[in-house]
Fold this sequence. Notes:
Layout: E1 5-9, H1 14-23, E2 28-33, H2 39-45, E3 52-56, H3 62-75, E4 81-84, H4 100-128, E5 132-137, H5 141-144, H6 150-170, E6 174-181, H7 187-192, H8 197-200, H9 211-222, E7 233-236
Parallel strand pairs: 1-2, 1-4, 2-3, 4-5, 5-6, 6-7
Helix pairs in contact: 1-9, 3-4, 4-6
Amino acid sequence: MKEKIILITGGASGIGLATAKKVSIDNKVIIADCQNIDKNFIKSNFDNYENVYYFKCDISKKEEILNLKKYILDNFGKLDCLVCDAGIMPLPCGIDDITDENIDRTIDVNLKGTFKCLNILGNLIKETSKIGSIVNISSVDGIIGEPYGIIYSTTKAGIISLTKSFARYFKGDIRVNCVAPGLIDTPLTDSTGEDPSWTTDYSIIKRIGRPEEVADSIIYLLSNQSSYITGQVLVVDGGFTLK
């Protein structure tokens, strides 16, 4: 992974930020996020901050993704790799209490937004880089289901399906894979108020995961080390789904 142009949606925090920190050492990285971040944020979080760029983007809005595409073309001329990490889980989100507004917003960002990124930006990779790699971020909730995060889990299951569909669509020119993290120490996890022991007590590795550990799996799937892998889901959950 050297001298690539890499775009990471949701790259301002959590798993996206951890991935951006690692790949920015030897590559140019564009962080696309709905959060406002400035040069001070970039300088304080990245060792090689001159390789890091920021573009504010709400992936639920097609016009903003098209603006992001134009920004990439105007400033870099190509895109080599894409990490679709942007996602939300607005509360309340359980079967008994989720609101219509939260249903719509979760689907708009997590599922529709990921589809739009894969379609628009994946084709940008095909047009400008020819051979590239995409990694989508799902969740173990998309594999086992989660009644306390019902639509979040549904969208994460949909991302697994999108991964397989786009892997077939790009026919090997662009590899498309998926990482499904378990409970990871991120701002999104903190926002749910979940007691980590509810998950870690049932995991083989009895601790919460670190964003950097998921980032390593993402980078493996982006890199040529996984050149014969596409359409697959890599579960990074400390063995939770085996228990």
